[in-house]
Specification:
Order of helices and strands: HHHHHHH
Largest sheet: none
Distance between the termini: 31 Å
Radius of gyration: 19 Å
Number of strands: 0
Helix content: over 70%
Number of domains: 1
Structural class: mainly alpha
Shape: elongated
């Protein structure tokens, strides 16, 4: 990251009007993204809970549901990367998230056609490995507001993923557990969006 010359407090100690406008625009983008992710997750969870009890064996519907979630997650991260005004910071965590999510989508497509516990184990691996980058990204974006819920979401994702992985490897667990995990994530996205919306209103006033 380049440094600004210490010419005056307005350029070194305080953000310029252009920087403030850029930060405000990025905050609005994050708010929109969080609301969209909440809506998608809520719909996905509703479909999963409505069909999970009927799905006791691998099925095309289960495969589609499991594959589409990490693909959407990867797309959301790419959208956030494109909107981020800070192009000089490291984007390794976000790109790692994207690559892993796409790989997991492929793995879920294969495992869900074999056995539900196998798919649950793969889902657990995904929850673990994307939870860490999510936590890192939330910490980096903490100044934009609405990130505490994302930090909690990332941390909980790691612990929940470990549980799914263990259940899957033991041949136990129900795929509805994945819906519960996604439902919690939806709540965190909604909380982040609401908190960020409140902060943006204060900044715009």
């Amino acid at each position: 990251m380049t440094t600004q010359p210490a010419t005056s407090p307005s350029t070194s100690d305080h953000p310029t009007s252009e920087q403030s406008a850029t930060a405000l625009t990025y905050g609005r983008t994050l708010r929109k993204l969080y609301f969209i992710r909440f809506i998608f997750a809520a719909v996905w969870v509703g479909i999963m809970f409505a069909t999970a009890a009927k799905i006791t064996e691998p099925s095309p519907l289960l495969t589609v549901l499991l594959v589409i979630y990490p693909i959407f997650d990867a797309g959301a991260v790419l959208w956030q990367l494109r909107a981020d005004p800070d192009k000089q910071r490291s984007e390794v965590a976000e790109w790692l998230n994207v690559v892993i999510s796409v790989a997991i989508a492929i793995a879920l497509g294969i495992s869900s056609s074999i056995a539900i516990p196998a798919a649950l184990a793969v889902w657990g691996v995904w929850a673990i490995v994307v939870g860490i980058p999510q936590l890192i990204t939330a910490i980096r974006n903490r100044r934009n507001g609405g990130q505490v819920a994302q930090m909690l979401s990332g941390g909980i994702s790691v612990f929940a993923g470990a549980g799914f992985l263990l259940q899957g490897l033991q041949g136990n667990g129900m795929i509805s557990g994945a819906a519960g995990y996604a439902g919690l994530g939806a709540i965190f996205f909604l909380v982040s969006a609401v908190r960020l919306n409140s902060k943006l209103k204060k900044q715009s006033a």
